[in-house]
C-alpha cells in the first residue's frame, strides 16, 4: 500500500511477517520501487528506510547521521529503553565520545590478539562437537553456535565459568520483547544490571589478565586522566555492549552460515572438500544473510538528501544493510553464495567509524566453527522440513530460533 507524505515521498506499508520470513524478496521489491521509503519502524513510529547499496554505504559514513538519541525529534523515536549504566555505549555515541571510548577497547580486538585465540576456540569447538556426536543430531543453535561465542567473549572479558548465566534469554527479551509481558524485559534489565555491577566489583577486588580488568584500571587510575578516562556508566555500558554484541551477532552469523550451506549442497560440498576456502568465507556469509539486516538507527542533525529524497532533521533513519548486500547494482548474482567473489565492499559488518569492532573475532570464530563442524559432519542435513524453521520475530535481527540437524560421518 502506498500514499504520500507531505514531503512527497511515498509511504510504504511493509508486511512485517513477510520481512521476517523472507527479507531478501521483500527488499528486492523495495529496491525496485525506489531508494528510500517512508515506513513504520520497529518501534511503531514512522521512519525512513534506505534500501539501495550506494545510498546505504554513503549514509553509514556520513557524520550528519547521528547515533545520539538526543538528536531525535521529540516523540519521533521510542526504541529500546535502558538505564544509563547500560545505555552509555558506542551504539548511542558520536565523536568525540565515540572516538575516545572505542580507542580504549579496540586493542582487545586487534587481528594479532584475535589470532592468539584461534587455538582455544578450536579446542572448545571440538569439545562441543564431541558432546553431541553420539546423538546423531542436535539443535546446532543451542548446542554449538550459541555456546561457542559466549564462552569466547566471556573469556575475553574475564567472566569466570561459575558466573556465566543465561545470556541468550536476556538477549531474546531485549531484541524481541513480548508486548504482552513487559515485565520479562524489565526483569532481564534488572538481572543484567545486577550481573555487571557484581562482575565489575569482583574485578576491582581481584583484577585479572582480561579486557574488563584493563578497562577498570583505565577508569580508576587517576594518572590516566584527561580524555582517556571512562565514566562509571561508560565502563558498565562498554562491558554490556562487548558481551551482548559479541555474543548475539556471532551466534547468528554462524547459524545462518550453516543454514545457507544446508540450502546449497554444492557449496556445502565445496567447503567440506576444500576447507582452505573457509578463510575469508565469513565475509560472504555476512553479505549473504548476516545477523544485522538493519544498521543501528540514525537521526540526521540537519535536513539530508538521500536517494533524491529530503529527510528532515531528527527523524529516524533505518539503513537496510541486508538489502544493500543483495543489490544487483553492486554485487553480481547477489542471491548466490559465492566464495570466489570479491570480499570487499559488503556492509554486513558495517562501514565507516561504526564498523564492527569485533569483526576480526567474528570472522575467526565463524571460520573455526564451520571448519570443525564440516570436518566432523560433512554429510549433515536438516532434521525437519525447511518450512518448519522459525526466525526470531523481529526485523532488527536475523536469527533462527533453532537449527535442528542430523548427521552421518566421522564421529
Automatic annotation (TrEMBL):
<dbReference type="InterPro" id="IPR002397">
    <property type="entry name" value="Cyt_P450_B"/>
</dbReference>
<dbReference type="InterPro" id="IPR036396">
    <property type="entry name" value="Cyt_P450_sf"/>
</dbReference>
<comment type="similarity">
    <text>Belongs to the cytochrome P450 family.</text>
</comment>
<protein>
    <submittedName>
        <fullName>Cytochrome P450</fullName>
    </submittedName>
</protein>
<dbReference type="Pfam" id="PF00067">
    <property type="entry name" value="p450"/>
</dbReference>
<dbReference type="InterPro" id="IPR001128">
    <property type="entry name" value="Cyt_P450"/>
</dbReference>
Amino acid at each position: 500500500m502506498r500514499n504520500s507524505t507531505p514531503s512527497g515521498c511515498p509511504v510504504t506499508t511493509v508486511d512485517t511477517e513477510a520481512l521476517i520470513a523472507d527479507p531478501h524478496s521483500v527488499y528486492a521489491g523495495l529496491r525496485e520501487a525506489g531508494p528510500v521509503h517512508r515506513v513504520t519502524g520497529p518501534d511503531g513510529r514512522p521512519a525512513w528506510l534506505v534500501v539501495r547499496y550506494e545510498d546505504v554505504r554513503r549514509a553509514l559514513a556520513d557524520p550528519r547521521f547521528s547515533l545520539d538519541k538526543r538528536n531525535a525529534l521529540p516523540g519521533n523515536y521510542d526504541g529500546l529503553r535502558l538505564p544509563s549504566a547500560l545505555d552509555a555505549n558506542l551504539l548511542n555515541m558520536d565523536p568525540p565520545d565515540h572516538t575516545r571510548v572505542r580507542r580504549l577497547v579496540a586493542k582487545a580486538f586487534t587481528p594479532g590478539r584475535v589470532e592468539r585465540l584461534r587455538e582455544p576456540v578450536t579446542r572448545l569447538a571440538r569439545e562441543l562437537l564431541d558432546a553431541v556426536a553420539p546423538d546423531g543430531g542436535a539443535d546446532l543453535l543451542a548446542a554449538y553456535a550459541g555456546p561457542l561465542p559466549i564462552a569466547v567473549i566471556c573469556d575475553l572479558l574475564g567472566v569466570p565459568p561459575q558466573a556465566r548465566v543465561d545470556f541468550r534469554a536476556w538477549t531474546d527479551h531485549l531484541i524481541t520483547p513480548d508486548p504482552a509481558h513487559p515485565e520479562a524485559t524489565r526483569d532481564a534489565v534488572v538481572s543484567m544490571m545486577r550481573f555487571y555491577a557484581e562482575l565489575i566489583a569482583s574485578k576491582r577486588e581481584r583484577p585479572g589478565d582480561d579486557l574488563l580488568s584493563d578497562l577498570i584500571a583505565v577508569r580508576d587510575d587517576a594518572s590516566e586522566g584527561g580524555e582517556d578516562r571512562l565514566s562509571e556508566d561508560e565502563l558498565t555500558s562498554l562491558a554490556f555492549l562487548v558481551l551482548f554484541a559479541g555474543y548475539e551477532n556471532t551466534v547468528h552469523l554462524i547459524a545462518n552460515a550453516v543454514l545457507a550451506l544446508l540450502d546449497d549442497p554444492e557449496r556445502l560440498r565445496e567447503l567440506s572438500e576444500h576447507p582452505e576456502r573457509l578463510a575469508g568465507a565469513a565475509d560472504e556469509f555476512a553479505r549473504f544473510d548476516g545477523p544485522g539486516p538493519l544498521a543501528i538507527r540514525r537521526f540526521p542533525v540537519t535536513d539530508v538528501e538521500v536517494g533524491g529524497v529530503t529527510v528532515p532533521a531528527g527523524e529516524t533513519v533505518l539503513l537496510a544493510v541486508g538489502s544493500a548486500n543483495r543489490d544487483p547494482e553492486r554485487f553480481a548474482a547477489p542471491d548466490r553464495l559465492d566464495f570466489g567473489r570479491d570480499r570487499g565492499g559488503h556492509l554486513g559488518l558495517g562501514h565507516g567509524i561504526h564498523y564492527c569492532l569485533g569483526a576480526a573475532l567474528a570472522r575467526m570464530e565463524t571460520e573455526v566453527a564451520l571448519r570443525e563442524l564440516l570436518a566432523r559432519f560433512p554429510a549433515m542435513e536438516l532434521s525437519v522440513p525447511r518450512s518448519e524453521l522459525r526466525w526470531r520475530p523481529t526485523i532488527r535481527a536475523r536469527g533462527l530460533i533453532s537449527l535442528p540437524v542430523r548427521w552421518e560421518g566421522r564421529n
